[in-house]
Amino acid sequence: MDILKQRFQEVASSVAQEAKDFLKSHGDQKIDQVTVSQVFGGMRGIKSMLWETSELDPEEGIRFRGYSIPKLRELLPKWKGGKEPLPEGLFWLMLTGEVPTQEQVAWLTAEWRRREQLPEQTIKVLDALAVDTHPMTQFVIGLMSMQPDSRFSAQYAAGMAKSEYWEYTYEDAMNLIARLPLLAAYIYRRSFANGQHIAPDTRLDWSGNYAHMLGFDQPDFKSYMRLYLTIHADHEGGNASAHTTHLVGSTLSDPYLSFAGGMNALAGPLHGLANQEVIKWIFEMIDEIGTMQPTDDQVASYINQTLDGGKVIPGYGHAVLRQPDPRFIAQKVFAEEYLHESDIVKIVWQLFDIVPGILQDLGKVKNPWPNVDAHSGAILVHYGLKEYVYYTVMFGVSRALGVLAAQCWSRALGLPLERPKSLSFAAIKKMVH
Ligand code: CMX
């Protein structure tokens, strides 16, 4: 058994026992009440899921196993000479609850690189698609094409005890994560670089190699990828991609099937696709105003025009957060150090000054502040990755870390099929007095 699997087994088996005892003594205790508005309002805030890997506070933002993003930037191991955390370290932390050592992270980097390969059938399936198929559609089809390699499914078909589920989920999670940079880079190069693929560089880490295979070898870009792939990894269990992965997985669909389900949710414009929408909207604004250095009045009038058209301002607002997203701030801090002269980045900061006031004045938007998607595109454009329809795939590569670590936990804790109760309007009317 490998060192991470071993440690996960030790930690998870003790938590599983504790959970069993806890349920016996506290199983009937109420921790929430549900209002009619919550039922009609997308189940906002109903406390109804167990999720070990991260927790979202409306004011503080995301904490991974209790650690904020600034803390993780400090604590997690870095690549040689680099300043940004390695996502490998975050995966270790989410799985075990422990900040890994430099050696443990070096092991995980090598382990993912050892497991990486793009199956022949995946290349054939992708090559059969039109090159202008949306990259998220290609991503999901690519994931589905790998499903025949699922160790969990094979073992289930062969007859596996429930106590073994976590082991094969772990194996699938590790293999799938290892393959994602190859899959994602293959999609980028076939769609935007005339199919001229770039071989992996065995000397690099998971993120650095992904950047390299995309065709971006600038050291700063690689650093940004390490940060990017860390901060997008998880946003507790209720967000659409995590919840979908969890729901699909609760039927004992294997990690490939469940993660593909989650990626279909990420591809919606109110969720991950917002990262492409932000930059598309900024490009359209620049085109209309006719300058890369618009005045505040010009920007405000463009924002109002979007709102008057009945559209949302992409990259702003959140279902849970009530402050600027720390994932936005982490990218701003990065950009202040590396790209403060970039016009497109300056526009993102100008929007940060102007959009919240306008949204606040609408009187209905619960959170007028930027979310993670408001900043990422401008940084990618600055480095030359301008094909914004691709951006959600990068988000997806990162999101795999959180939702697959969480799925290992779901199997280790023996969580059952998810099945909430729905009600018709007529039934709800009968229940209220
Ligand atoms: N621009 C304009 N109006 C907005 C808005 C925005 N950015 N954010 C919310 N509103 C509106 C809503 O559309 C809603 O209007 P109606 O009552 O007329 O339908 C009203 O304000 C109340 O919405 P809310 O309770 O504040 O927000 P929700 O929890 O319903 O939705 C979210 C959250 C993210 C879908 C919404 O803020 C939004 O559409 N933002 C833009 C898209 C975006 O950036 N999504 C990415 C989120 C992060 C991620 O998952 O990647």
Report on this model:
This protein has a two-stranded antiparallel ribbon. Helices cover 61% and strands 2% of the residues. β1 and β2 (61-64) form a beta hairpin. It is mainly α and 433 residues long. It has 2 domains: 1-20 and 38-273 and 388-433, Citrate Synthase, domain 1 (Orthogonal Bundle); 274-383, Cytochrome p450-Terp, domain 2. The mean pLDDT is 97. It is built from 20 helices and 2 strands. Bound molecules: carboxymethyldethia coenzyme *A. Carboxymethyldethia coenzyme *A (CMX) binds at residues 270-272, 274, 312-319, 359, 364-367, 371-373.
Layout of SSEs?
Blueprint: H1 3-26, H2 36-40, E1 54-57, E2 61-64, H3 69-75, H4 87-96, H5 102-115, H6 120-127, H7 135-146, H8 151-158, H9 165-192, H10 206-214, H11 219-231, H12 240-250, H13 255-266, H14 274-289, H15 296-308, H16 326-338, H17 343-362, H18 373-383, H19 391-412, H20 425-431
Antiparallel strand pairs: 1-2
Bound molecules: carboxymethyldethia coenzyme *A.
Carboxymethyldethia coenzyme *A binds at residues 270-272, 274, 312-319, 359, 364-367, 371-373.
Distinct helical segment count = 20
- Biggest β-sheet description: 2 strands, antiparallel
The quaternary structure here is single chain
DSSP helix fraction: 55-70%
Q: Please state roughly what percent of the residues sit in beta strands, choosing from under 5%, 5-15%, 15-25%, 25-35%, 35-45% or over 45%.
A: under 5%
Average pLDDT rating? 97
The second-level CATH architecture of the largest domain is: Orthogonal Bundle
Ions, cofactors and other ligands present here are: carboxymethyldethia coenzyme *A
CATH topology heading of the largest domain: Citrate Synthase, domain 1
Q: Count the domains.
A: 2
The H-level CATH homologous superfamily of the largest domain, spelled out, is: Citrate Synthase, domain 1
Strand order of the largest sheet: 1-2
pLDDT under 50 segments (min length 5)? none
